[in-house]
Amino acid sequence: MRVLVLNCGSSSVKFAVIDTQTKQSISSGLVEKLGVNGHVKAKGPEGNSGFNFDCAAHAEARPEVQT
């Protein structure tokens, strides 16, 4: 089974997907600077990625992480 873990702070959202059988992180990252020039940093099986976007609130960050 895979579990999505979210940690929502005042200006950031951290996330991770963990395989419960192997206890390994499949992917992880963070959305930071919410409200002012947001930035996504992610690490997954295919390597690291990052991009900037305008994001005023936490609810707007979720669709950016899914892409």
Describe the structure.
The protein has 67 residues and is mainly beta. 13% of the residues lie in helices and 57% in strands. The protein contains one helix and five strands. It has one helix at residues 58-66, and strands spanning 2-8, 12-19, 24-32, 38-44, 47-53. Strands 1-2-3-4-5 form a five-stranded antiparallel β-sheet, covered by helices on one side. β2 and β3 form a beta hairpin. The protein is elongated.
Give the SSE map.
Blueprint: E1 2-8, E2 12-19, E3 24-32, E4 38-44, E5 47-53, H1 58-66
Antiparallel strand pairs: 1-2, 2-3, 3-4, 4-5
By oligomeric state, this entry counts as: single chain
Low-confidence stretches: none
**What is the number of helices?**
1
Beta-strand segment tally: 5
Percent of residues in helices: 10-25%
Tell the overall outline.
elongated
**From the alpha-carbon coordinates, what is the Rg to the nearest angstrom?**
12 Å
Strand residues, percent: over 45%
Give the SSE string.
Answer: EEEEEH
Average of per-residue pLDDT values: 76
The order of strands across the largest sheet is 1-2-3-4-5
- Alpha carbon gap, first and last residue: 22 Å
The biggest sheet, with number of strands, parallel, antiparallel or mixed sense and barrel status, is: 5 strands, antiparallel
Question: Structural class given helices, strands, pairing?
Answer: mainly beta
